[in-house]
Design goal:
single chain; 141 residues; alpha/beta; Immunoglobulin-like; four-stranded mixed beta sheet
Length: 141
């Protein structure tokens, strides 16, 4: 009888662990190469963490007006490996300021791209090398 209770407890505990793992937040890595981010478009779930690595001569900066309403903008320091957790659904556009002229821009899509139309409209007003974000937006459906 003790063995049956023990086995039942083990089965219940292991099912609890496996169901919790399904809902765990994930980490995603964006690698800064010479003049581009790899991957330059990342799809994540709300609550996931995004980290930029290899940032020796790079930074990551969100673009004003090209993140969801209610989301916090960010500015990573030059040379800083940087990470943040994104909870608000939508499209987030960001750049590497020192290499913006080379097209070092990226997008993060958190959950549903609820603000895609607004981001596309705002991006049309960008000037200079910031307009390179338009090419990335064309890849989104």
């Amino acid at each position: 009888m003790c063995i049956k209770k023990y086995l039942a407890a083990v089965i219940m505990f292991s099912s609890l662990i496996s169901s919790t793992a399904v809902f765990a937040a994930e980490s995603h890595t964006i690698n800064a190469e010479a003049r581009r981010f790899v991957a330059d478009i990342v799809y994540i779930k709300p609550g996931d963490t995004v980290g930029w690595i290899n940032m020796t001569s790079h930074n990551t900066v969100s673009i004003d007006g090209l993140i969801p309403e209610g989301a916090k903008p960010w500015r990573g320091a030059l040379g800083e490996n940087f990470q943040l957790t994104l909870d608000v659904e939508g499209v987030y556009a960001y750049v590497c300021e020192p290499h913006l002229g080379f097209g070092m821009v990226g997008l993060i899509i958190v959950g549903e791209p609820t603000n895609l139309a607004a981001v596309r409209e705002a991006a049309l007003k960008l000037e200079g090398p910031y307009r390179r974000i338009l090419g990335k937006l064309k890849k989104l459906k």
